[in-house]
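Internal ticket #5521
Category: modeling
Description: The requester needs a full-assembly model to guide mutagenesis choices. All entity lines are attached below as received. Residue total reported by intake: 1045.
Assigned to: D.W.
Attached entities:
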Amino acid sequence: MIADIGLITLTIAFIFTVYATFASAYGGWRGRWDLVESARNASLLAFPFLTVSVIVIVYSLYVLDFSLAYVYDVSSQAMSPFLRMAALWGGQQGSILFWAWMMAGFVAAVLLRKWERDREMMPYFIATAMLTTAFFVGVVLFITNPFMRLWHIEGAAELTQALFQPANSMPYYPEDGGGLNPLLRHFGMIGHPPTTYLGFTGFVIPFSFAIAALITGQSRGDEWIRTTRRWTLVAWIFLSIGLILGGRWAYDVLGWGGFWGWDPVENAMLMPWLTGTAFLHSVMMTEKRGMMKRWNMVLIILTYSLALFGTFITRTGVISSVHAFTKSALGPAFFAFIGLTFIGSVTILYLRWDTLKSEHTLESFISRESAFVLQNMLFLAITFVVFWGTIFPLISELVTGIKITVGPPYFQKATGPLFFVLVILMGIAPLLAWRKQAVRTFGKAIWIPFIASLGIAGIWGYTHRMHPASILGLWLVTFSLSTTLAEFWKGVQARHATRGENPFTAFINLIGRNHRRYGGYIIHLSVVLIALGFIGDANFKLETQGTVSSGESLTIGDYQLQFEQLRAYPGSDGREIIEAVTTLSQDGEVIRTLNPRRDYFTVQQQPVTVPGVYSTPGKDVYVLLVGWDDSGQSATFKIYVNSFINWVWIGGLMMIVGTIIAAWNTPGQREATYVLKPGALTSHPLLQES
Amino acid sequence: MRNIKRNLFLVLLALIASFYAASAAYAQEGQPGYPTDNDVNRIAKKLYCPVCPNTPLDVCETKACEDWRAQIRDQLSEGWSEQQVMDYFVAQYGERVLAEPQRKGFTSLVWFLPLTAVLIGTGVVYEILRSWRNQKTATTAVPPLPEIPKELLEKIEREIRELD
Amino acid sequence: MTKLPLNEQEVQSPPTADRKRIGVIITFAVILTLLGLLAWGLKKAQAGPLDNGLAPDFTITDFDGRTATLSELRGQVVVINFWASWCPPCREEAAYLEETWRKYEDKGVVFIGVDYVDTEKEALAYIAEFDITYLNGPDIGTRISQAYNIQGVPETFFVAKNGELRGVHIGPMKSPQLDEKIEELLAEQYP
């Protein structure tokens, strides 16, 4: 009866979140501070209660309490204990509980840390964040409840799911459950959902602060931006990790030799990431120059709305196929919620639009400011392209009645040039000064990286593959890489010259002294590496397919794959494995044995293709077992040679490091808060000093 | 100078266009072994499985997709061209089997609108930047802070440069 | 907007105010359009197969070149079965369908097999395997399956003598489900 405890704590958490929403809004409105404090306590308490619910579900999954419908759906005896617990996010019910729990966690963390600061914004912050949390907890409680039990009603052909015993029914205890979808049994899929959810839910913090700032009028200053900067970074990096882990999962499990397929589910994650990235940059304009205050608001509202939008279209089957038939009440509830969020936040923004005036002055088109504006436009343009391609099938069906597909070719062609310009801009923008950049000095800074990158790309492209597109791609990454590295080099040089530090110490001190800036550059470097992976995927990929008998070889590039034999054996987690033994050689020299295989999950009747991969920093040889004849004498293989693909994962790790550096809080470090406009100077502390 | 710039621009455009040119070599009709798996996959790659969500036909593992690939092979060995195979698929299974949306009729909007949006966006950015620059000339028309000592301004400037 | 304090009115020159109004109208129009689109998509995603009202009309050409049009079959009970050769559950019911067809062939019942996204070769092999004699044709361009909003295959729709849909069966049918449904529809009397 331990499941009942989870249900009870879930109910209590729901009551707390609803109470916190109303009490804080009312308290803020009427200036009743006692109510706001009580709302805060309720918000803080909601988290431990939800935690108990989560623990109960995880425990039930672990001990295989099949009387719960959710456990019956996603867990099974054949699964390892670790997988059983990871099944918390293996299905709809568990995922949304997990989602609500993390959101409550984020809010609780903010309330513990920021309570004394920003007191004025707190009532509305709590109200906004708790309204969202209450919605998700409510969905878990009333619509997708993971504590539903299985009942057998007398004479009924099918089992009934209900929280409480229906009339004339007997509790039903299945012997074994269905188990987790075999495709999800991979480390990428174990880590991908939690990180993605952390990313999505994390954006509720900057969003709620933005709304609170708008309501209280605090948005005039940019306090809310400083308050939320790290939270935004946390959400952003988790979303980035989620994207990369999802890519890794697709590469290892889906068996098509790629890591990014422009599927609606992927696009749904990419869009908030794009606008979130734009937001992280545009807030710098506000902090350094007092510009783009309205734009920040637009971006954070857009980011949060896109996160909800993405969840909506993928969870309710609005954009999907015949197979994802989900006739749950989740759809209408979620629809009402996103409608409320979109319209509500835009209305508040409209009402406060005029208070957000900021002075915009630009001395020169060639300046950091211009670069920021252009960069923001590019991010938004890419977001629009992705958004349009994702929802166009729906529009087409509504207008013409014809179902169409918008596949990778569209996204590659439409976003490719935009990403190209964006990466160039990423390379040169850090060289541009605020306000005004003299063309001469800029030219001096840029010509060495420019010439060097042309040379490297030319030679590199020539030795690899003589194709204009590949050379252009290689130039792009070398150029951006060298300009960014030059920034580090200049800093190290300066420290070396002025303080006589050795290069290594100088490098460490450089980052330590301005970790926000250099952390940002490290992230830029990581983006270049990831771009290299995408360029390899687009321009350097080789593939071939063929059927060979035992002893025969397939050739791709300078690699040969020789088929030796097929073998079959039972594996863990209730699977039957059919494996090919092959030998990979390069120019006649044996490198190693590869074992591409296909796993049949007998209970789910689902095959999973596991590639055999020979991985090097330069390229992966990725072999799939496509088919075989029943005698086992011949087999069909598909081989991909994927260039630079590993740089995507390396770039991903580097991105995490860069973000940690950028978000690191050094006590006593002064943040650059100068606002360079004439009026502000008179009130500057430096002026009062003299 | 202008001309060089324009030429450079054209070269760049041509380079970008070449991004999309397919460049791998395949067996041609009439050669022994035609059609190979690669010939089939080259076409299947441009098609989507009509029954599974968002899966290109060349990588789809279901029985149905195997049948479709076999059908492409049969059609190719009967001498069909790539375009004929694609047209047959569209006629039989609807437009949604095309990975790349067509560029005609209502569907052309999928291509057209982003292009327009990017062009408009560029115009808007230029306009915004221009108006900001104009604002600056307006504010500097007001007498600029004579009361701030020069050394102090320099000090601030220096501080800013260091911080930034 | 009319009761703004004087100084604010001065500050806000008319073109800016107009621009703002246009901006707001466009923004809300876009949001509402998007929400409308999502609402429509949601409704469509949640809708099951068509199971009442007048059955959508269609003309189907079978693998031998014969054609049939639903609206010309008034007065007869029509069973429309969606299937595909690659669908294992379809095989479970294929023999039962053919057997029932032979039983009711001369009793005012028409069977139409609609082959949903299939290859002709495999479809013909399937028809030969189960010795299917009722009319079977491909669903060209998936027009028929879209009109009936099928959720998958196999799916069987029942059309009464007056051309109205009388329900749908999702998944393979077992004896005597089909016989019962046909008897029920044959028994319908119209004034």
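Resolution: model delivered.
Comment from assignee: Residues 11-27, 138-146 of chain B have pLDDT under 50 and may be disordered.
Ticket closed.
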